[in-house]
Amino acid sequence: MTLEENIIDIMSKKGIDYEIREHEPVYTNPVMAEALGVSEAETVKSLVLATKEKTMVVLVMPGDKKVDWKAAAKTVNTKKVSFAKPEAVSEAVGCEVGCVPPFGHLTPLPVYLDPDLMKQAQVYFNPGVHHKSFKVSSRDLKKLCGGK
User: Three-state SS string across the chain, please?
Assistant: First the structure.
């Protein structure tokens, strides 16, 4: 099962309504927002971070927001976080950096959802590929991520 199929399976089992939007391959949130005709705040940025203790976590935030490294470290109860190495991301998640979905990863990783995402009625995320985006309600995204 591909990462995208796994995500669809999870949403179907949980009865989550979603819409699939195909577009040209996108590699950044501003370009994704433009391709979808939505605000950058409605796009989801899923960042895989490495902690000082060498564990990985996923920080899910609005596409227009920058990482506050100190706040991120505090949120995940560590002294320091940084971007995980691309090879480690690919192995743990099942896709390359730039299209990491907010949930459904090959390896279960703790997911921390930025509360600012709840300001949007719906949000768009990449399902592990650069040429598609899935639209879900922000409330459903919180259910899917487990919302830490």
Answer: CCHHHHHHHHHHHCCCCCEEEECCCCCCHHHHHHHHCCCHHHEEEEEEEEECCCCEEEEEEECCCCCCHHHHHHHCCCCCEEECCHHHHHHHHCCCCCCCCCCCCCCCCCEEECHHHHHCCEEEECCCCCCEEEEEEHHHHHHHHCCC
pLDDT in tens, 85-129: 999 999 999 999 999 999 999 999 999 999 999 999 999 999 999
Under 8 Å between Cβ of 19 and 133: no
Domains belonging to the chain, first-starting first, are 3-145 (3.90.960.10)
Reported as a single tens digit per residue, the pLDDT across 29-59 is 999 999 999 999 999 999 999 999 999 999 9
